[in-house]
Amino acid sequence: MSLGQVVSDARKKARLSQKELAAAIVKEDGEPMSPQYLNDIEHDRRTPTSDHLIGEFARVLGIPKEVLYYEAGQLPEDTRGANVGEERVLAAYKAFRRTLQGK
Q1: Residues 15-52: tens digit of each pLDDT
Q2: What is the reported pTM?
Q3: Are 3 and 72 contacting, i.e. CB atoms less than 8 angstroms apart?
Q4: Cα–Cα distance between 67 and 34 in angstroms, integer?
Q5: Whole-angstrom Cα distance, residue 38 to residue 21?
Q6: CA 38, 19, 66: angle at the middle one, nearest 5?
Q7: CA–CA distance, 78 with 60 (Å, rounded to integer)
Q8: Domain span at residue 30?
Q9: For residue 52, what is the domain's CATH number?
Q10: In whole angstroms, what is the distance from residue 16 CA to residue 21 CA?
Q11: Which of 9, 38, 40, 103 is the most buried (most CB within 10 A)?
Q12: Helix 3-13 to helix 51-61 angle, to the nearest 10 degrees?
């Protein structure tokens, strides 16, 4: 599933129109998201690039941020740039893959 599909499905489940959801998502500048930008996200023409917008979608739609980061192909902000060493990164990805595969 793509990030756009997750957002679209959650919006529909919440019985919100694109216009209503866009109005509820507040950008970094304090302004609401445009319905066109939301439409582009839902149709995978754009991906929210900021941690702030991922957080807004999580807040408004009740989706864990980690799920949105995963679908966006991004790492959560608290894991980026951590100086943990190659061994720990490999171990983390191994555990992540094992969990996803149900092993």
Answers
A1: 999 999 999 999 999 999 999 999 999 999 998 879 99
A2: 0.86
A3: yes
A4: 23
A5: 8
A6: 45
A7: 21
A8: 3-101
A9: 1.10.260.40
A10: 6
A11: 38
A12: 30
